[in-house]
Specification:
The protein is α+β, with helices and mostly antiparallel strands. Helices cover about 20% and strands about 40% of the residues. It has a single domain, classed as Bacterial OB-fold (OB fold (Dihydrolipoamide Acetyltransferase, E2P), Beta Barrel), CATH 2.40.50. The protein has a five-stranded mixed β-barrel. The radius of gyration is 18 Å and the shape is globular.
């Protein structure tokens, strides 16, 4: 009886994991269904994070959660930085507390998790978590 319960539990976890699998649209934008783990950020659980590019961010709706992979190439102002990947550049806002003890140079690849912010004439990603890409 215990083996049946354990097997049923394992099977249900496997099936629910498959239901949360990654999806991809026609334009190649990948959506990951994951749990946000950013410190000091109240994002809730199981929010979709869209893995995209600097160019792809331009097409996304305000408040879309995104994951970017690329390089921080320069500082524009106190919290604003220029992010670059293979598709182009994008301004990202990284608050001091999100840097933590991380230090890097423009040749080091990073992963950024954040939220799309749209103003009248610009698109910025408000970074919630940044890490060196492994």
């Amino acid at each position: 009886m215990k083996k049946t319960v354990i097997l049923a539990t394992a099977l249900s976890l496997f099936i629910s994991g498959a239901a949360l699998a990654n999806t991809q649209d026609k334009e190649g934008t990948k959506t990951e269904h994951t749990t946000c783990t950013a410190k000091n950020h109240k994002c809730g659980n199981h929010q979709a994070i869209t893995a995209t590019t600097a160019e792809g961010v331009q097409k996304l709706a305000k408040d879309t959660r995104v994951k970017l992979s690329g390089y921080i190439i320069k500082s524009e102002s106190e919290n604003k930085y220029q992010f670059k990947d293979d598709t182009g550049t994008l301004t990202v806002n990284i608050d001091r507390h999100n840097w933590g003890s991380l230090s890097m140079n423009p040749e080091e690849k990073v992963e950024i998790y954040g939220k799309v912010e749209k103003k009248a004439d610009s698109v910025i990603v408000d970074v919630k978590r940044i890490a060196k890409e492994k």
